[in-house]
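REQUEST FORM: STRUCTURE PREDICTION
Request ID: SP-0412
Submitted by: Lab K.M.
Chain count: 1
Length (residues): 294
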Amino acid sequence: MKETKFVRCALASACSMFVAMLAGPVMAEGDFGETKALIEINATDGDVGFHALLDADGWKWAKITDPNGVKIFQEKPHGPLREQGLTENFFESAEPVCDPDDVEDPDEPVVSLAEFIARFPAGTYQYRAKTLDSELLKDTAELTYDLPAAPDIELSEEAAFEFDSAMPESTPVILMWEPGDDLGDKCHDQDLIDMGMISDPADVEVVGYEIVVEPADDEALVPNRKFTAQLRGDQDTLTISPEYLATVWDQMAEDGVLWVKFEIGAIEESHNQTFSEGEFCLYENDEADCVVEE
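STATUS: Completed
RESULT:
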């Protein structure tokens, strides 16, 4: 009897091993270090894009599929890079405008917010990767339609910026904003809200803000220098570092252009973000004085 039980156990173990071999390597849940799938809207420019982040141990290939099982991204390095392996990739899709009235070239792509959410369904996005050791990894990221309202920076220049003098070393520039209630004139779609297809942006809780400051002319400084900050969702002011302004002042003044642009982005819990843009002059609060005379 004992021998029969032993034989049965041995056969059961062998069968289990055989089934496991047919099924392939076991993939553990949550093997990526970090994953994100999010929607970014620029309310000022009126454009929308899909962003994703995948971070894991060195891989030979990685891919993402949407909730419908459609593969939307695949990455596979070659040659020395394949031998070295990749560990992280944060990418942004192209960001076409939402409003056809904003394009001058008829061939320029236009994607309304309704078309965008039809293209990128909400739900669970599957992340897969194969490491240098041939281990299969998998994880997920949730994409939601909780789109935060664009920050309201439509304040008078006198209220938004405070200048002690024309010298940046002693000029604190204070950015100020308030929570908004929509996605901007160009991407906001009230019909989607009324039909319950997306959340009302005014009701989406903002958990943080991201601020980016840089020369308005992308080629004004080489390399381009940016000032960035990440704040809590209950904060509404930021003083730009005088050291940063002093850094960009001299070279920009030589070129005769002193405009600086800034972006203030509202971020909600699932990482969706909506940005508003503005600009100011380093020299004075008067547009006519913002070009240095030769």
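NOTES: The chain has a mean pLDDT of 83.
Reviewed by: T.R.
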